[in-house]
């Protein structure tokens, strides 16, 4: 497990984008060998997406041979609804890069058989050879995707009923009207993300500080699902200074002392 600590959200976003770019370039994808990328929604990755778009427009990376799998989608929202995760991803990332729409995979919250939709998603990931790099954010309660407190740490893609706290938190996206907030979502499981070759988790803001503490300084616990990634062979947490507020001083000093090593991970390949 690695922890990369930056001073600001913008620095987190730039570093994360460089990390994704470096992985794609090192993989050297082609028409018969696509790079598979797991992607999140939410406010945390927006800066990373913006920077990746800049890299693409500057000719520093291509997504022509990249295949993506998104973490989750609301049940019952039309694909073109302004708050659907389909809309989020296309508006904030996909329409600005050269990705083939056929290589974009987002769960369909209006599928006639939601269980089958989830099973098919797992099958597509396997058929793609698994995910090379899965990126995630977390909630203040330590959930990743919609794997909320109490979720199984070996869970797979499934239908999930949202906790009242999550519904209330998401009401701001629906004009503050709780009745308009979806109560269910389709989500990859913790086990689905754990199967990825590598996982990068972005954690920013003081409101995520206790979750980061639980994620890396205490034991694995299904009430803090992000803690499961302590057991992944290649997890990297990327956070800003505010998110370290609940960490022990020696933890912060240790990982800051490794920044010269971590920064080599995002250098341009020779």
CATH-defined topology: Rossmann fold
- Mean pLDDT, nearest integer? 96
SSE pattern, N- to C-terminal: EHEHEEHEHEEHEHEHEHH
Strand order of the largest sheet: 1-10-9-6-2-3-5
State the CATH architecture.
3-Layer(aba) Sandwich
Radius of gyration: 18 Å
Please report which band the strand proportion falls in: under 5%, 5-15%, 15-25%, 25-35%, 35-45% or over 45%.
Answer: 15-25%
Q: Helix/strand/pairing class, anyone?
A: alpha/beta
Counted by DSSP, the helix tally is 9
Q: Could you list the spans in which at least 5 consecutive residues all have pLDDT below 50?
A: none
According to DSSP, the number of beta strands is 10
User: What spatial form do the alpha-carbon principal axes imply?
Assistant: globular
In terms of topology, how is this protein built?
Elements (H helix, E strand, L loop, with lengths): L1 E5 L2 H19 L7 E5 L6 H12 L8 E5 L1 E3 L10 H8 L11 E2 L8 H14 L5 E5 L20 E4 L2 H7 L13 E4 L2 H5 L3 E6 L5 H8 L18 E6 L8 H8 L2 H4 L8
Parallel strand pairs: 1-10, 2-3, 2-6, 3-5, 6-9, 9-10
Antiparallel strand pairs: 4-8, 7-8
Helix pairs in contact: 1-2
């Amino acid at each position: 497990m690695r922890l990369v600590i930056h001073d600001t959200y913008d620095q987190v976003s730039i570093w994360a984008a460089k990390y994704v770019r470096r992985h794609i370039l090192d993989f050297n994808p082609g028409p018969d060998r696509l790079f598979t990328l797991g992607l999140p929604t939410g406010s945390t990755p927006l800066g990373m997406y913006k920077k990746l778009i800049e890299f693409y427009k500057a000719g520093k990376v291509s997504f022509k041979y990249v295949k993506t799998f998104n973490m989750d989608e609301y049940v019952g929202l039309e694909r073109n609804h302004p708050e659907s995760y389909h809309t989020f991803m296309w508006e904030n990332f996909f329409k600005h890069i050269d990705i083939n729409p056929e290589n974009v995979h987002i769960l369909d919250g209006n599928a006639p058989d939601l269980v089958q939709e989830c099973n098919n998603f797992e099958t597509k990931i396997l058929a793609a050879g698994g995910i090379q790099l899965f990126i995630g954010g977390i909630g203040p309660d330590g959930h990743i995707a919609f794997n909320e407190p109490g979720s199984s740490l070996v869970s797979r893609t499934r239908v999930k009923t949202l906790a009242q706290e999550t519904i209330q938190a998401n009401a701001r996206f629906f004009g503050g009207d709780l009745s308009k907030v979806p109560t269910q979502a389709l989500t990859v499981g913790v086990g689905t993300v754990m199967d990825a070759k590598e996982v990068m988790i972005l954690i920013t803001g003081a409101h995520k500080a206790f979750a980061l503490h639980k994620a890396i300084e205490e034991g694995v616990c299904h009430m803090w699902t992000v803690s499961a990634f302590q057991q992944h062979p290649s997890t990297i947490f990327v956070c800003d200074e505010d998110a370290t507020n609940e960490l022990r001083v020696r933890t912060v000093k240790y990982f800051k002392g490794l920044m010269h090593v971590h920064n080599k991970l995002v250098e341009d390949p020779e």
